[in-house]
Design a protein that fits this description.
The protein is 27% helix and 27% strand. The protein is built from six helices and 15 strands.
């Protein structure tokens, strides 16, 4: 069975958005574990994984945000198709390649897509909306560096062998998705983005209210994975400097 888990801070939002989507595709006999009012998504998700790892009937686990809605009635069949490759550890709906930090959305989009739907139709995203919603991502299916954490589907191997880094990146709510995907890849497994109809119900939120926690997680992530050689060197906009002066349209400058 495919089990589901959710860390809930807003019960009304969970019941209005997330739960109907789960019930749209869940086998009635499959476990659904809800952890409420935890100060860290790292510990909440680890608690869910620990509980479901002990259930011999569980074949995979889907961790989903309270503001995320599964709209695809073929969700479970698509997930089983993706997980038929035993090397696939984590599946999501949209991912990125060339990831250098937890700000994965500034890097190249890989494959997959997400439906963005505002909770408040009067407060939309910065980009234009079509009938109050937009689809982001290139679509299709493929291997990526990481997938967006609003939905993370774990293979049975991942349920038994991977845990969110509570001490390194946690506590808090940032970088958990990037880190768990890098853990899987560091152990020779794959992360896959699969195009499925999943909607993320939120309005655009600026980074200011989360700035300190976000920066701490970003620094911890880069230190951890640079030390393991998992972050490729970024491309420079100009050739490496070798001690010579360069000419520009503004005249001669020292780099």
């Amino acid at each position: 069975m495919i089990a589901f888990g959710c860390a809930v801070a807003d019960q009304a939002k969970y019941e209005r958005i997330c739960l109907p989507g789960i019930e749209r595709c869940r086998d009635p006999a499959a476990p659904l574990v809800v952890v409420r009012d935890r100060p860290s998504i790292f510990s909440a998700y680890n608690q869910i994984l620990d509980e479901l790892a002990a259930n011999p009937r569980v074949e995979s686990v889907v961790l989903i945000h309270e503001d995320t809605e599964i709209q695809d009635r073929r969700f479970e069949s698509k997930l089983r198709w993706a997980l038929q490759d035993p090397m696939v550890a984590i599946v999501g709906t949209i991912g990125a390649v060339g990831v250098q930090g937890i700000d994965w959305w500034v890097h190249d989009y890989g494959v997959g897509s997400t439906i963005l739907e505002p909770i408040d139709p009067e407060v939309l995203y910065e980009t234009g909306m079509i009938q109050g919603a937009e689809v982001s991502g290139m679509g299709s299916v493929g291997e990526v560096d990481m997938v967006d954490g609003y939905l993370l589907a774990f293979s049975l191997w991942a349920v038994r062998n991977l845990r969110f880094d509570e001490d390194g990146l946690g506590p808090g709510f940032h970088g958990y998705d990037a880190d768990i995907c890098f853990q899987a890849r560091d152990r020779g497994r794959k992360v896959l983005a699969v195009e499925m109809d999943v909607a993320h119900h939120r309005n655009s939120v600026g980074p200011d209210r989360y700035r300190d926690d976000w920066l701490r997680a970003q620094i911890a992530f880069r230190r951890k994975w640079e030390a393991k050689g998992m972050l490729a060197a970024p491309e420079l906009p100009f050739p490496p400097y070798h001690g010579k002066r360069a000419r520009t349209s503004l005249g001669s400058i020292d780099r």
